[in-house]
Amino acid sequence: MRVRRTFAKWLVVLGVLHGMVVCAGFFAPYDPVEQDRQSPYLPPMRLHLLDAHGHLHVRPFVYALRLRESSFDQFEEDTTEPHPVKFFLRGARYRLLGFLPLRMHFFGGENTRIYLLGTDAYGRDQFSRLLFGGQVSLFAGLLGAGVTLFIGWSIGAVAGYYGGWRDSLLMRVAELFLALPWLYLLFALRAFLPLAVSPLEAFFLITAVLGAVGWARPARLVRGVVLSAKERDFVRAARGFGASNGYLLRRHILPETSSVLLTQAAILIPQYVLAEMTLSFLGLGVPEPVPSWGNLLSGLQQYSVLVSYWWMYLPALAMVPFFLGYLGLASSFEERGAVYKIESRIWGM
Amino acid sequence: MRYLLRRLSHALFLLAGVSILAFLFTALAPGTYFDEMRLNPQIAPETVTALRAQYGFDKPLPVRYASWLRSVIHGEMGFSFAYNGPVAPLLLVRARNTLLLTITATLLAWGIALPLGVWSADRLGRLPDRLLSWATAGLLVIPDLAVALGLLVLAVRSGWFPTGGMASVDFETLSPFNKLRDLALHMILPVTALVLSSLPLLVRHVRAAVADVLNAPFLLAAVGHGIRKRTLLYRYALPAAANPLISLFGFSIGVLLSGSLLIEVVMSWPGLGPLLLEAVLARDLYVVVGGILGSTLFLVGGNLLADLLLYWADPRIRTESGAR
């Protein structure tokens, strides 16, 4: 009972976070590629409740930022005029869920632009880019994990159910894939594909590459479950009654693999999001101007950014709750008695 | 002995398979190192064709694989177009740098994880244990990339550590002692990043393994005999819990070459990682294949080592494989 409750708790956490990313257009105040050339590398604005005179405001507000005197990169707050944060106001056009054209945004400023995580070199809002980047990264993770699980599941089921030469052949190939260092494999597979591609193509290439790399582990786990399931008494009984292979697999054996698949999904998705981040960070993934969690951080490869604009690092911290949610989900699956803990984690690095 | 042979032949088979696979992946990639040259109007198309022929790019794949195999046997592992020389010496220098980093980090991580995990398992469910569990979970969910970049930001803002490379500009002029000091200073950041990224996993596994055996009757009996707690934990409990840890250790050995790729790139450590990234971008085929093969060698070797250690440590495995 307790296990089920923690499970539900993590599911809610993940649901909320993913909801924000899916509805990025609504929660982000600005368009992710909209540039504000007047204010490149603006530090994050603080939300205030107390103003400079010590008055308490019910509605949170920000101060506009201006250059400190005789400085070219140090900003200070202009405390003469507070700019209240408005909710549900009209702003940049976007399409909710890809089709619903809307202009309503969750929050924003009326006379000034509000940058919660600062801006990048082109004055683009980092907070908006974080949310929109999540659409790319999380979707790549989900899709990649889906592809991997599907391949691994089919191969594992065939190997486990039919056995014989098919089993030994498939499992030898799986061992090969397990022995490959997977980040290197990712590189090699990416090298296989053209370097200069459009953002959309890059996205699908990455997903396909990710999906193709990791099938060996789920295949082995599924095979193990199928092997034990096909010797169960009720399966033998069904076979004795004349059930066909297809029916047995569909009705009796594959349902047994669902818990393995769920656990693997909770482990694979964050792994693939990380892989997408790594590739994009190194410039092998989704190219600018489309934001992804990886290329959001790639500015930090420049020394000058590291020295002067530390807030470019904030998106990295903002991603942590997502990984926490998936870790929580995976460990609550594991508490339900799955024994795949050690192997999956070790190879999952 | 037969067990050893079987494992060894298995490892060799894996290596051969990986080499074919890696070769296939990279050789099938569209474009070669010489394609950039085609765009350069100062290089005649005939020159490019001649270069392609010189390096055997006009031959079918199996022939190229065979000639590559021959160069592996000669200890060259193919030819790097970008560096205009055999791949093996190139990889060796870089691998040495990588190993310097990763061996230090691995020893450090295990040195911290073992006592910490045992300590935590001894206090299972009490406050210090719970705090540690939270801390390791926290570390586990921060991506390596974020850890490395965060350390860099800290280092740059504080100015305490050098933030990139392996040596200062005036390295050659330093005295031997100062050279060592300089190297150690440069290693601090990447080693910290590596330790932080592998530590939580190790601590959690040590804790789980030791906690599993702590309730065993023979340990209760040992407590009854009045054996000191430290002896109890380290001489009695830890060996009994060693099996999963040995596999994990084998894995730690296995990723010595490949595990630090990202952190090397971020911290611009002149190891295998940056070399490989460059090679992928420049389509320097044989460097990529060599890098993959080298790190696979370590992965397979690490597994083999773990198998051997298990064989030596666990009599159950000995009798089982002897009976077969």
Describe this structure in words.
The complex is a heterodimer of chains A (349) and B (324). Chain A has 349 residues and is of the alpha+beta class. Chain A has two domains: 45-115, no CATH class; 130-348, MetI-like fold (Orthogonal Bundle). In chain A, 56% of the residues lie in helices and 13% in strands. Chain A contains 15 helices and four strands. In chain A, helix 8 runs antiparallel to helix 9. The longest helix of chain A has 37 residues, at 126-162. Chain A is elongated and about 85 Å long. Chain B is mainly alpha-helical and 324 residues long. Chain B has a domain at 100-275: MetI-like fold. Chain B contains 15 helices and two strands. Chain B has helices at residues 2-27, 35-39, 45-54, 61-73, 87-122, 127-141, 144-158, 176-214, 217-224, 229-240, 242-254, 261-266, 272-282, 285-313, 315-323, and strands spanning 79-80, 85-86. Chain B has a two-stranded antiparallel sheet with strand order 1-2. In chain B, strand 1 (79-80) and strand 2 (85-86) form a beta hairpin. In chain B, helix 7 (144-158) crosses helix 8, helix 8 runs antiparallel to helix 11 and helix 13 (272-282) runs antiparallel to helix 14. Chain B starts with a helix and ends with a helix. The mean pLDDT of chain B is 82. Classes of the chains: A alpha+beta (349), B mainly alpha (324). At the A-B interface, helix 4, helix 5, helix 10, helix 12 and helix 14 of A face helix 1, helix 6, helix 7, helix 8 and helix 11 of B.
